[in-house]
Amino acid sequence: MKRNLAVCAVLCAVLALACSPKKQADGGTTGAQALKIVLILPGPVNDQSWNAINYAGLEKCNATLGTKMEYVENVQAPDYESTFRNYAERGYDLIMAAGTQFDEAANKVAANYPNSVFCVVNGMVAQGDNVAPIFPREYEASYVAALIAGEVSPGGQFATIGGFPNNAMEKLLDVYEKVSVQIAKDRGLSRARAVRAYANSWDDVSLGKQMAETMIGNGADTLFVYANQVGLGSIQAAREKHITFIGFSGDQTTIAPDTVVASVLFDFETFYVWAVEAFINGTLNGNTVHEAGIKENIFVPVYTQAVSQEIQDRVAAGIAKAAAGEVDFSSMFVNP
What we know:
By secondary structure, the chain is α/β, with parallel strands linked by helices. It has ten helices and twelve strands. The protein has two domains: 31-137 and 269-296, Rossmann fold (3-Layer(aba) Sandwich); 138-266 and 299-332, Response regulator (Rossmann fold). Helix 3 (80-89) runs parallel beside helix 4 and helix 5 (138-152) packs parallel to helix 6 (167-186). Mean pLDDT is 91; it is low at 1-29.
């Protein structure tokens, strides 16, 4: 009996060593920091919009999870596949890419590299055991933006600009337009309306300025733009014409606080930690789009002094209503 107990003790010790993190030569441990992770960005990390908030998520993961995630910025459409392939060939464990525009390339390349997990942020296509996109329910964020816009618009003349007319963009703009117009009408602005245009670009700043100027010339008094760097040009036009602007994805109030009266910040620090932890824990499953939104607290309104506390309280009540499941977003989509 004593001999059997001794053998069991030895086996347990061996198993404990095998299952515990292995010590590295520098005294650290393998685990999160040993994973090879990269984030592919379509634009610069300092765009104060989409690329910036994704980069903030990377930094938060490295700071809190101990990862050593790398990044590459300004990757253009012709280089999507080759960039994915480059990191897969080099044995990266998790290859992330920021934007729906990466969906097709990620799914195509992933089929040839089963040992790498491909995760498109804002991705909507998961066609493989190693394809696991994460998707912020952006229409919930645009709902928050609309709660603000409907209250602050001087005359209820809303103009929106999207990057490309993909399904996610159309849905978020549908929600924004319907909610903002209705709130403006409830305020007594009976002629409230919304007009929409697409830039078919994420990075043409001058085009964003031109489009915004045209919309303003046609009577728009409140602008909402979700097109990465295109939005920077639109903010410039709004500032010059003294038009109200609602920021989106990043805190754009810092760009022009007298023009961008409020922003809806995507808390991608929380979003990225949530996703990378799932990958580390083995729960970021393939063939699945992993979603997060208001309930996960990843959309945060940011206000300037131009937005009264009374309006902020009404926006908070609207957010609480959505968190409780009392808002039927699907009824707002023009093309469900």
